[in-house]
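Residues pack. One example:


***
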Amino acid sequence: MKRSLKFMLLVTVLLTGTMTGLAASYDSDSASIRDLRWRGNTIRVAISSSMSDQSPSIKRGSDVAQAVERSLQRWAEAAGFRLQIFYTPLQNVSPSGPRGDGISLITIAPTAENTLVFSKNGNSLPAATRVFFDRNGNITEADIVLNASHQFSTDGTFGTYDLETVLMHEAGHLLGLDHSPTVGSLMWPQIGRNGLFSVSSFFRRELLDADLAAVREMYGVFADEEKCCGTLEVKLPSKAGDSLSGVWVEDAVSGKLVAASAFAANEKAARISSLRAGSYNVFVSEGGDGIRSGSILGTVEVSKGSTAVLKADTDLAASGASFQFGLNGEAALMSLPVNPGKTFTASLVLQENAGDRQVLYSSSKFISIDDGSIQLTVDPFGRFVAVFDVTISEDASPGAYSLCLLDQNGQENCFPGVFTVSAHQNPWYKRDFSKY
């Protein structure tokens, strides 16, 4: 029998009885446990017979087998694992406890056992993953359950969850990854249904640089990769707040988000050891729910086999409420899907009226904000919203890029990974907007 760990909310507290002796399990929506990983180089995953387009929760005609295989295989290649996939009549995930049944199962069966997984946080989550591990932090089993009360598809049907995207996120948890502190990552704790921003969520099927860095941080990098890898250590001032803080790293040349990490509570240092040799801009933000802004700490040079240290000599700016971003009149705590060579009309929901003139720009040379297009308006909820045109360069490579805002005091606030440049086409861009 099986259950699982969930993904849509934010990483919160550590469950009791984790690393203190006996083996244990944890659910991803309710626990954050570091340094759990599989040992060896082979992972066996069982696919329940419930995972077919005959399920009332999966649209008929969906390519379920390929969605499952691709979602697992992308992570396996990134982590250097060999997958063994087999099929089983098993329906239920293992109950939470000291040990499971040893079978890592993917299921969507609407059984009482599986439904119980979603009882704690309501029924809003589309999926969950439960990880079992021993006293040494070795993962022994990881079960993924899809919430049968939601609808899934593989063709972008409006209002459904993209099956492959959901499975890719959960497969990250299966490997032991926590949620990412930056929105420009597949492991960001939220995912939208097809139709958010009037597009399909296919663009979330991709492992971006921050995802690759996270899994290689956990399992090691490939020795034959040229220029890989060096380490960055970020140290906060002793008087920095005790709340969770995030650090993210952007390539200094392209401005692309390449890695991100979160400080554990009360920690004053973080290390990222999966960076290629090169120059990087480093940002830090206070922790909290949703998309938080951060400020640049500095630029560092990372060399293969060495550690670059960056010390913050000032306190972090106080963290405000979570920001939202939008396209096509919709705002959400999500990255915005954009394409190279196109101009989009985007929006930023502000926390207060910052005056008639907003200063918006990107830290990337490939993302251009039209200063003359920026307008301040009020949405139906009474919130102040900055609406602006953003142009993506023809030669912008796939990945996540940031947006920055100068407040009334001249303080720079940058939002990591707000724009996701993808090959999956977003038809709602500015120059063709009149057609729709």
Notes: The radius of gyration is 21 Å. The first helix runs from residue 64 to 79. The chain is about 10% helix and 35% strand.
